[in-house]
Design goal:
The complex is a heterodimer of chains A (476) and B (204). Chain A is an alpha/beta fold and 476 residues long. Chain A contains 16 helices and 20 strands. Chain A has two domains: 271 residues, 2-Layer Sandwich (Aconitase, domain 3); 174 residues, Aconitase, domain 3 (2-Layer Sandwich). In chain A, 32% of the residues lie in helices and 17% in strands. Chain A has a five-stranded parallel β-sheet with strand order 6-5-4-7-8, covered by helices on one side. Chain A is globular. Chain B has 204 residues and is an alpha/beta fold. Chain B has one domain: Aconitase, domain 4 (Alpha-Beta Barrel), CATH 3.20.19.10. Chain B is built from eight helices and eight strands. Chain B starts with 5 loop residues before the first strand and ends in a 9-residue tail after the last helix. Classes of the chains: A alpha/beta (476), B alpha/beta (204). Bound molecules: iron/sulfur cluster.
Chain lengths: 476, 204
């Protein structure tokens, strides 16, 4: 039996938001420092099948089916072509439905009006709330931190552990605060902030840390933008990223399907107002960013840290002081078929993709449509809204007409070309301007080359056929 | 889970930074059942040409066969939470990866599967990479209790979270440990229901 020490709740020491969330979920802490956390929400998708097989081996049931929610997203076909390219996808979707029926939890299949990418569609249902702990077998679970939830991605063995116990053993993470102050220049969004941060601190810059985003710029962001920012925390290596809830958060949650209602909602808001970092609370590390310094940012390499303002040039590895970084740059330049000194705006693009849990919400589609309105794309592109609800809203606003008139394909919701599991892939050797989160080699399909950017920047690339500063295409 | 105490094996040098989980196992293989064995998928697209022939890659030559240790550069296993990346390593026979840093979720997944993520300093990883790549290199020995890695007369220390160390040494399974805490969990839930009545979704 491991020894136990009582959970200490200091009344005098100022606490961070991360401390408060951690303390509220700590069931017990072992002498070795591991804490058993209670999990308020467990989200599943088709890829969770390994965990169910572990349950079957043990003849186990789910501890809390009422806190467990499934959704089909990774393998969902978004158009006819994807069904043809990945004929096995439907067996993965059917497998999730079978597991939901057998183990007794709610799950949205491909045709469900609640369907969409897990990190887009389930917040829409009011399942993500401030003050909750939330896990999913997917690294971009950090997205839900936008609501002031303690949300992180886990692996299949941990998924099985949560299914069986509704808890997880965790080590208290180090804490980092990233403060962004000032007014964002026109046309600059959360994606630019995130890529700017990752370029500055590195793809492992926040390893082992939980990040709190703070500052006047963050306070001014919409929920959609906050989700984009928190989503990309993992690309800086962080376990999770979160933002203190405020009026913006509460307004988003009001009347959502599974959010508390009436008096309970008022009670919740009273509690949620305490979910802030106390003045004078200390972080292990701090970074400060000046919003007016942020330009439209794109990645040129095969790691999200290889990102630059669109006005920049491909770096010269021979002048890089760090030999490992220089070699990584050489390797990336070769894979991406670029050359040192090349102007970013001279890089030709073969297709664009607007979608993924990073940038497929209604605001993202609006930002892209502003650039695309009354223009024609020179290259093919796919637009996949993040959920059935986003699709519905976009069509009500007529955005799909703008995409289609520009020559882009308007598809159904799903992970789609972000990871290509459903057959929506970028052909080998092609270069894609993508609103997704990973530019890893082959991420969008074997041999694919990915440049990450905001929806407005992907739209601009569609119109010109090369990387383009979207600010130049904004209507006055 | 098989305990990890000491391991002596050939080591393969993989002098690449930021090897992400999409490289470790490309997404298209992930719908396979585990019983199929994930070893052949390990670093598949780095090891093979599009026509399926083998590339010049450190894991490919005959002398790399049977190597249970990988030595690599920083941020190994960054990216997606896919435990399949660990399955690919484990099914290929890899029992330890040595690097200056690891993706957090990857490292946690490794422990669950008895695979050691050994953290060394950048200079030590460069020394080990060089030593392991020498023709006729001596086998590498990892001693988890002592936290040392030895190749010939080169000895370096590595770090690992102490909880993970115990779990690996004893081959402990989390779930059994947690199930013993059932009473504490029940007590927490009861208290929490009063403290946070809004935390449970209204499924009605
Ligand atoms: S959209 Fe991409 S990153 Fe997001 S959950 Fe799906 S596959 Fe993962």
């Amino acid at each position: 039996m491991p020894d136990r020490t009582p959970i200490t709740r200091s009344l005098t020491r100022p606490l961070t938001l991360i401390d408060k969330l951690w303390n509220a979920h700590a069931i017990t802490t072992r002498a070795d420092g591991q804490t058993l956390l209670f999990i308020d929400r467990h989200l599943l998708h088709e890829g969770s099948f390994h965990a169910f097989n572990q349950l079957r081996e043990r003849n186990a049931r789910i501890a809390r089916p009422d806190l467990t929610f499934g959704i089909a997203d990774h393998y969902v076909p978004t158009r006819k072509a994807s069904t043809e390219a990945a004929p096995a996808a439907h067996t993965m979707i059917a497998q999730l439905a079978r597991n939901a029926a057998e183990f007794g939890f709610l799950s949205a299949g491909a045709a469900d009006p609640r369907q969409g990418i897990v990190h887009v569609a389930l917040p829409e249902q009011g399942l993500t709330l401030p003050g909750l702990s939330l896990v999913c077998g997917d690294s971009h679970t950090s997205t839900h931190g936008a609501f002031g939830a303690y949300a992180f991605g886990i692996g299949a063995s941990e998924v099985a552990h949560v299914l069986m116990t509704q808890t997880l053993w965790q080590k208290r993470p180090d804490q980092m605060r990233i403060t962004v102050n000032g007014t964002l220049p026109p046309g600059i969004g959360a994606k630019d902030i995130a890529l700017h941060i990752i370029a500055r601190i590195g793809a492992d810059g926040a390893q082992g840390h939980a990040i709190e985003y703070a500052g006047s710029t963050i306070r001014a962001l919409s929920m959609e933008a906050r989700m984009t920012l928190c989503n990309l925390s993992i690309e800086a290596g962080a376990r999770l990223g979160l933002i203190a809830p405020d009026e913006t958060t509460f307004a988003f949650l009001k009347n959502r399907r599974f959010a508390p209602k009436a008096a309970l909602f008022d009670r919740a808001i009273t509690d949620w107002r305490h979910l802030t970092t106390d003045p004078d609370a200390e972080f292990d590390r701090e970074h400060t960013i000046n919003a007016p310094d942020i330009a439209p940012t794109v990645t040129w390499g095969t790691s999200p840290e290889q990102a630059l303002p669109i006005t920049g040039h491909i770096p010269n590895p021979d002048t890089m002081p760090d030999p490992n970084k220089a070699q990584a740059a050489r390797d990336a330049i070769a894979y991406m078929d670029l050359y040192a000194g090349q102007k970013l705006t001279d890089i030709p693009i073969d297709r664009i993709f607007i979608g993924s849990c990073t940038n497929s919400r209604i605001e993202d589609l609006r930002a892209a449509s502003v650039i695309l309105a009354n223009r024609t794309a020179r290259i093919p592109g796919l637009v996949s809204p993040g959920s059935a609800a986003v699709k519905h809203q976009a069509e009500a606003e007529g955005l799909h007409h703008i995409f289609q008139a520009a020559g882009l394909e308007w598809a159904d919701p799903g992970c789609s070309m972000c990871v290509g599991m459903n057959g929506d892939t970028v052909p080998s050797g092609e270069r894609c301007a993508s609103t997704t989160n990973r530019n890893f080699k082959g991420r969008q399909g074997r041999g694919s080359r990915t440049h990450l950017m905001s929806p407005a920047m992907a739209a601009a690339a569609a119109i010109t056929g090369h990387l383009t500063d979207a600010r130049l295409l904004r209507h006055s | 889970m098989i305990p990890f105490t000491t391991l002596t094996s050939k080591a393969t040098a993989l002098p690449i930074a930021n090897i992400d989980t999409d490289q470790l196992i490309p997404a298209r293989f992930m719908s396979q059942p585990r019983s199929a064995g994930y070893g052949a998928f390990l670093l598949h697209d780095l090891r093979h040409n599009p026509d399926g022939t083998r590339r010049d890659f450190p894991l490919n030559p005959p002398e790399a066969e049977g190597s249970a240790i990988l030595i690599t550069r920083r941020n190994f296993g960054c990216g997606s939470s896919r435990e399949a990346a660990v399955y690919a390593l484990a099914d290929h026979g890899i029992r330890a990866v040595i690097a200056p840093s690891f993706g957090d979720i990857f490292a946690a997944n490794s422990i669950k599967n008895g695979l050691l993520p050994a953290v060394v300093t950048e200079p030590d990883s460069e020394r080990l990479l060089e030593a392991a790549a020498l023709p006729g290199a001596r086998p590498t020995t990892i001693d988890l209790a002592a936290q040392t890695i030895t190749i010939g007369n080169l000895v370096v220390n590595f770090t690992i979270d102490r909880v993970w160390k115990t779990q690996l040494l004893e081959g402990l399974d989390d779930i059994d440990l947690t199930l013993r805490e059932a009473r504490l969990i029940e007590g927490f839930v009861e208290q929490d229901r009063a403290a946070r009545p809004w935390a449970v979704p209204d499924l009605s």
